[in-house]
Design goal:
16 strands; 16-stranded antiparallel β-barrel; Porin; 9% helix; mainly beta
């Protein structure tokens, strides 16, 4: 209750600030959630589970001090999935809290801010409200971290774009070790509709405990069509045996009418993800390789409101014990609106 009161106080405070200075302050946000039904699941306890859930609520306040300095404060809430006895109410937490300095084509960002890990991939995929990007879904990293970032463009017409970051390596949580995380993405935009990006990070967790990630991404994008190809590899050194994970993905979205789009995505995990059972809203079996598919329709009855019936399907390979886990089949009716 105390945290909820703080959240309400935040809303009232920034609303007052926005009302006093409309030229420099702006409130925005969005909400998305679903009605879901587990027709089949690799965990027998989840079969036939269904219900309504809010997977994200954002409330954002942006403020510009002048042409060079600006700031953002964003809170997030979501409904615990309840699949692991986590049922509870939504609790707000800080998602973004940063100060930005912009000079020319270069930005310096200090605080909790978006990482370069899948920022471009998520933008091209365009359906975070339906499902996370592959690396986000499989817990290869975090969308936020606390540190110092530099973003900018090089060459004529910004043909090269970069995003570098030095951070704690513990998302938006407190630092818990002496190590740091270094992240870098470099994108090449040779023509208007083509994107190539390479990404890498190194997270120093402690003695003989390091994580390395490498990622490649290519996309073709127009107003009516998007196609993306994505591959990533991560090595987790834990002090004993190294864990190497690889994942590939292909996705597409096409506009069929002015307010209707169709979308589809296929992810292939080439190694079992030992953290699979911890994936919120869609726990994976942790013992087997998997193929994930999502297909759906995006209908916008009015501006900023989207209704998206979709279905997610996960097929598992035979694991090392000779057992093939049952497939997951999850139809959803997803809603998404912005303000």
């Amino acid at each position: 209750m105390k945290k909820l009161l703080i959240f309400i106080l935040f809303v009232l405070t920034v609303s007052a600030a926005f009302g006093q200075d409309e030229d420099s302050g702006k409130i925005s946000g969005y909400i998305f959630g679903d009605y879901y039904y587990f027709i089949e699941n690799n965990n027998p306890k989840l079969k036939d589970m269904n219900g309504f859930q809010l997977r994200r609520v954002y409330l954002t306040y942006d403020h510009s001090y002048d042409k060079e300095f600006s700031m953002r404060l964003r809170l997030e809430m979501n409904t615990p999935d309840g699949f692991s006895n986590n049922a509870g109410t939504s609790i707000p937490f800080i998602k973004d809290a940063y100060l930005k300095y912009k000079t020319g084509k270069t930005q310096f960002i200090l605080g909790i801010s978006p990482t370069p890990t899948w920022e471009v991939v998520e933008k091209i995929w365009g359906y975070r409200s339906v499902e996370k990007t592959p690396l986000d879904l499989q817990k290869f990293g975090s969308s936020r971290d606390f540190g110092l970032a530099v973003k900018g463009e090089l060459g004529e017409n910004g043909i090269i774009k970069y995003h570098a970051m030095l951070a704690n390596g513990n998302s938006n949580k407190s630092e818990f070790n002496s190590g740091k995380k270094v992240l870098l993405s470099v994108g090449v935009y040779p023509i208007k509709n083509i994107i190539f990006e390479v990404y890498g990070d190194y997270n120093r967790l402690g003695v003989d405990k390091d994580i390395y990630t490498l990622q490649g991404f290519a996309a073709y994008k127009t107003d009516d069509f998007r196609l993306g190809l994505h591959f990533a590899q991560q090595t987790r050194q834990t002090g004993a045996d190294d864990l190497k994970l690889e994942i590939g993905s292909i996705f597409s979205a096409v506009k069929v009418f002015s307010n209707i789009n169709l979308f589809a995505r296929l992810d292939r995990t080439f190694d079992p993800n030992t953290s699979g059972e911890k994936i919120s809203y869609l726990p994976f079996n942790k013992t087997a390789k998997s193929t994930f598919v999502v297909v759906g329709l995006d209908y916008s009855p009015i501006k900023n409101v989207f209704l998206m019936p979709n279905i997610e399907f996960i097929r598992y390979d035979e694991n090392k014990d000779g057992v093939t886990p049952k497939s997951d089949v999850v139809p959803r009716f997803t809603f998404y609106y912005t303000f």
